[in-house]
Fold Bardet-Biedl syndrome 9.
Amino acid sequence: MSLFKARNWWSTVLGEKEEFDQGCLCLGDVDNTGNGQDKIIVGSFMGYLRIFNPHPVKTGDGAQAEDLLLEVHLRDPILQLEVGKFVSGTEMLHLAVLHSRKLCVYSVSGTLGNVEHGNQYQIKLMYEHNLQRTACNMTYGSFGGVKGRDLICIQSMDGMLMVFEQESYAFGRFLPGSLLPGPLAYSSRTDSFITVSSCRQVESYKYQVLAFATDADKRQETEQQKLGSGKRLTVDWTLNIGEQALDICIVSFNQSASSVFVLGERNFFCLKDNGQIRFMKKLDCSPSCFLPYCSVSEGTINTLIGNHNNMLHIYQDVTLKWATQLPHIPVAVRVGCVHDLKGVIVTLSDDGHLQCSYLGTDPSLFQAPKVESRELHYDELDIELKELQRIIKDVNKSQGIWPMTEREDDLKVSAMVSPNFDSVSQATDVAVGTDLVPSVTVKVTLQNRLALQKAKLSVYVQPPLVLTCDQFTFEFMGIPRVIQCKFRLPLKLICLPGQPSKTASHKLTIDTNKSPVSLLSLFPGFAHQSEDDQVNVMGFRFLGGSRVTLLASKTSQRYRIQSEQFEDLWLITNELIIRLQEYFEKQGIKDFACSFSGSVPLQEYFELIDHHFELRINGEKLEELLSERAVQFRAIQRRLLTRFKDKTPAPLQHLDTLLDGTYKQVIALADAVEENQDNLFQSFTKLRSATHLVILLIGLWQKLSPDQVAILEAAFLPLQQDTQELGWEETVDAAISHLLKTCLSKSSKEQALSLSSQLNIPKDTSRLKKHIALLCDRLAKGGRLCLSTDAVAPQTMVMPGGCTTIPESDLEERSIEQDSTEPFTNHKHLIAETPMPDISPLQGVSE
């Protein structure tokens, strides 16, 4: 017995020994009350027509006498019932009843009763059509785009479509190659009839083609149904589904698209209105009926499918969302609004069981029987408990059983930075210009609880910092594992107190939500001796001569960082934010936040990218030229060697001069390659610092979470070192393109674009700069970074005031100028709690 039963709201049994099929059930406001309440209309093969309006006193009640509004015996078997605008001159709803040789249209009306019996209902025959051929089924709709009325199309048993324009007969057409009739439906969006032929093909015929076609079959017709001259009847499109269809339904819940649903004997198909398969679902049980209806999720359609196992399955597209059990096998299912209850599921069986139900569950009343109690032996339980504890203890001691996350205490790595510099510097380069290069000792401690197997310690710092030793190996026996430990180096290792500068080429302003803090409290030991009283200005001088000035506003909650070099701003800006956070945490203030409301300095950033890329191109050219000169040098050597081995002396023809000149060129080119590599290394270090700064500013500007900042860092800083084979530009461009086509995509069309699987050095940096600007633009419009594929759905984005529009189409891309990469200006002031960055060995250095 299934827990998920259909909750019986109202039910009844119709007649005795009557038979019903899928066309014998219809719902609609057939009496035109206008209150939105549907009536249940049922016809049987015995010719009985019944109209119900259920009013149960409580859920699960059977039918009362007043629930049956009308019962009429029409004598002829009822094949199908439909409710529509079938009478000319009025838009009132009428009831169309299809018999085997007759089509009747009735009006249903009710009169108020003056006695206790209540209202009385009667039907009135409006018109009827006698059919010359035996009918199978029918459909209706606004054929040809007519307004305010419905036309009826009847399919006969021999494959003829007969169209009736309300009271008059229009025309009849034989479907080509028809053997047995199949289900028939009309699509108002494409103005076509859709059926499934005996060839197991879904076929679509345009109404206009039917109207003007000449029947291909020369069958005898009556004078009323003779065919006019016209074109040969052709099919609009076909689709082979490989099985016979039970029913067809056209769903068009919006004006943008419509779907054709076909229920087969083993599969369930959803087609586009042009015949292409949208999706299909293989059914586990033999279906008996189905009904698509609108879904609460946009872009999806729910479908009720009944089967011969007394089950009703609810699918959302191809996903099974609910399964409920019915007391009978449904041959017809409808959904409507009955007695102010929306979404009532009405099912009809072939023997007349009519039920109105809703979905839900009831608690199970089953109670587990009590087990026989037995006497407890505490001594035996103690022995069993000790044995289990021993087994658990042995398992914990065994190797490789539990995951490494359960063994956090097996190995601990800690690093401690010495508070003072070494008395004798251990730096390989003792001086940079006039500045002495200091060194500091870092003590790394390994604590292991169990024996280790070949422990290897690797230490990494970002350039231009260097290590005296970066690899340590310890020989032990035990379990291999990996542990990471990060530490901060003192700021004075690469920075000295300097004279503040009043003017600078590059400036940044960081806003906070707290009063400004004295810079002496944040950076003790960096104040200039002659300016100890000026606590709001402080100068820094990097080893090598670069200067950075930090200013704290006396009146506003702002800090300004300025320098002549753009890349020099990052270290002081990052250090300022970290030290402000630590300062307010010590004060017990938890709501401190930093923000950046200025323009993102993309133009300065792009200049560093162009310089780095230019050095890469120069390196390629120099290496190519060096290779050519080396080939030339070896060729001259071979010529000279041949001359020297010749027994007959011959003039050298200036080969020695050519060899000497080529040798000098090779030496000069090798020196140029080394110089370019040094410049490229310095340029990449500057580019990394500028990239850190841009990521920091974007995080403050768009209040990104630590996870989103980590995604940006992974995209912009994928390489620890730059090489000619795999460079920074192509790697970052591929990573940003992936973000733009996934989590930052604006449509599913962008997501469908495929990325190149091979990374090659680009011709220029215009594409990379455009993608970086586009990424900032998508973030400014509300895009969010994430790695989950479920979150790549297109979002409704609102552009803050002042953001520069970034052209995205191919036509706009052709006309884009260099000024398209101008910095974003006038961004909305964003206050965001600054995420604590994941500090790398160079990031965040302490005093």
